[in-house]
Here is the input.
Amino acid sequence: MYSQVIDEQPVSSDELNAQEALFQEKIDNDIKIEPRDWMPDGYRKTLIRQISQHAHSEIVGMLPEGKWLTRAPSLTRKSILLAKVQDEGGHGLYLYSAAETLGVTRDEMYLALHSGKAKYSSIFNYPTLTWADIGVIGWLVDGAAIMNQVPLQRCSYGPYARAMVRICKEESFHQRQGFEMLITLCKGKPVQKAMAQDALNRWWWPSLMMFGPPDADSVHSAQSMRWKIKMNGNDELRQKFVDVCVPQAELLGLTIPDNKIIWNEEWQQHDFGEVNWDEFYNVLKGNGVCNRERLKARVDAWEDGAWVRDAAKAYAVKRQRSSSL
Ligand code: BYC
Here is the structure.
């Protein structure tokens, strides 16, 4: 998938093993890997997959919330939402840039998204039906993103780790604005609180799916954790997320739609019900409520923007010609 390999590759298998051992030693000692350092092919590929899918998630993630920009209930709410959606666009751009340092081009990444080859987070294939969904997305979806991304600030690949620092700061603001919006709704009229509860009912389980399949079914976790591309297993982060959300839901006076949630004294964590993994895999296959709509929106945006890219190219050529005269 990537178009250039920056470093010289070792030639014999002994040399390769020695390089890999040295590489793993750096990772084990928390020495950051930088773009020009030698890295195993699999490390580069896994990073390109994860970072580009993360970038796509940010960009596709602008769509469900963007839909509500024209329907925000006040100018203040509209300004906040506008800033949030723009932030997500910015996150996508940092992440595409981080992936580019691994030798993949932006066009290759877009092509992978538009052809359906590259994934983006399953969560963005669900529709935003009411204004309360915007609050719940901030609370749960950005909350899950923070849970997953804060540890990634310490991941082994320098450009990805550094991109995460800024992204996490902004995601924290997003999470808080969502929670604050829900406090307002829950303190409002019964119909507003009911709207918040309905949104929680629809977004809870898909939010738990954001952390990926159970560890036992996770294809990449073990190797990614050895390489510190991933810092925690999927189940560990999902559990932490549930433990954080339960008291927050209580504070809001909302009920998490899972009657198996109960505090486990022995494990000092909450037990919770089984995620519907059939639904998760079905969404991944492209059969979620909004998969087609989301992909079409991205492909249309790319095609509608062709004239801008052409004009920029023509302008660059013209400038180059006039400066070489
Ligand atoms: N959705 O071996 P596994 C955000 C795929 S937040 C879709 O466990 P891995 C945002 C996985 O790609 C969301 N696909 O994979 C928030 C793999 O398929 P491939 C983005 C999923 O990579 C608020 C297969 O299932 N965050 O952007 O070790 C507002 C097997 O899974 C999902 C990130 O991307 C899913 N939920 O672990 C706006 C964070 N889960 O690739 C925007 C960085 C799994 O072999 N990414 N799959 O075809 C990660 O931490 C990891 O990639 C994951 C998955 C935990 C997501």
Notes: Residues 1-7 have pLDDT under 50 and may be disordered.
